[in-house]
Amino acid sequence: MIQESRKLAVLAAVALLIVGFSVLARVSRMRTSPIGESKQVSSSESKQYTAPEPLFFETEKGHDSSNGSNNLAASSDKNVSINIPKKVNNDPFLRITARAYLVGNVETGKIYFERNSAKQLPVASISKLVTAIIAMETLASSSIIEITPSETMVPPDGSGIGAGEKFTVKELLYPMLLDSSNIAAEAIASSRSNRMKFLELMSSYAWEVGMPQAYFADPSGIDPHNQASAKDIFALAQYLYKFRSDILAITRTLSLEVATTSEHGAHNFTNIHPFIDDARFIGGKTGRTKEAGETMLTILRINGQAIAFIIMGSEIGAREGDTRILIEELAK
């Protein structure tokens, strides 16, 4: 019994020695092989590594930072300012310079686009459309009007008409609406010997046709107090299209030659509207003053519908471009 106990004790001691030697061997291997070191790969197993192309950034001065002192690698000890390109906004409406605009169907009244359409702004020579309405409503078209020296004391125009010449009311509508003659507008408004009464009729008639924000201080639009909103001008376009197509017909006349008579000299009245050569053009009127910027009413026949494009407060030289942007957007 005692002998068997001794045998068991010897066997246990041997087992402990074996385990001890095994642990010492493992620790030894761990010391000779650093922790975390990856397995070595033979040259036949390794994959070729290709460095990526360097990324170049535009610096504040707009130079390529891959050149000279702008190289990022060579400037690690300096603060390098990198411009991150901003997102480009391609909204075409943001290119329109007009302070206000409106695009609408003059037949149905539907509005397609508008910006600040209720804002009252100077209208410049669009005023002459209202002057034409009052002239045709209150004066006989064959009435003779003589231009006086005082009526020529306004900014000049291309019509060439002057003091002492006599024209019929109908004849004066052409230089007023084609060349945008301020002289013709003044002569028409003063023909009844009561210019103020004529201006009162302009404002009151405008209100009656749906232009509640309209006001006219002169017949030509030179005065910056001649004001209306884009919605007012849209109402005017609707009225002209439905009830005064004769006025629109004049505004789409390319030119008119007037021969010399005993009453006046020879003149060539030429339409200055930028869309006069557009086959879709139904009529309209331009305007331009320092206070108003550029204004314009353009009525085009598009897909069988009469569409009014109203621009107010465009930058000088931009009214045509602003209108064309609206035409392009409507076609989308």
Largest sheet: 5 strands, antiparallel
Low-confidence stretches: 30-78
The CATH homology group name: DD-peptidase/beta-lactamase superfamily
Write down the CATH topology: Beta-lactamase
Describe the structure.
The chain is an alpha+beta fold and 332 residues long. It has one domain (93-331): DD-peptidase/beta-lactamase superfamily (Beta-lactamase), CATH 3.40.710.10. Helix content is 33%, strand content 17%. A hairpin with a 5-residue loop joins strand 1 and strand 2. Helix 2 (127-138) packs antiparallel against helix 3 (169-177) and helix 2 packs across helix 5 (195-208). It is elongated and about 145 Å long. The relative contact order is 0.14.
Descriptors for this entry?
two-stranded antiparallel ribbon; Beta-lactamase; 332 residues; alpha+beta; 11 strands; five-stranded antiparallel beta sheet
Brief account:
With 332 residues, this protein is α+β, with helices and mostly antiparallel strands.
Topology record:
Elements: H1 2-32, E1 100-105, E2 111-115, E3 121-122, H2 127-138, E4 144-146, E5 166-168, H3 169-177, H4 182-190, H5 195-208, E6 227-228, H6 230-243, H7 245-251, E7 255-258, E8 267-270, E9 281-289, E10 293-302, E11 305-314, H8 319-331
Antiparallel strand pairs: 1-2, 1-11, 3-6, 4-5, 7-8, 9-10, 10-11
Helix pairs in contact: 2-3, 2-5, 3-4, 6-7
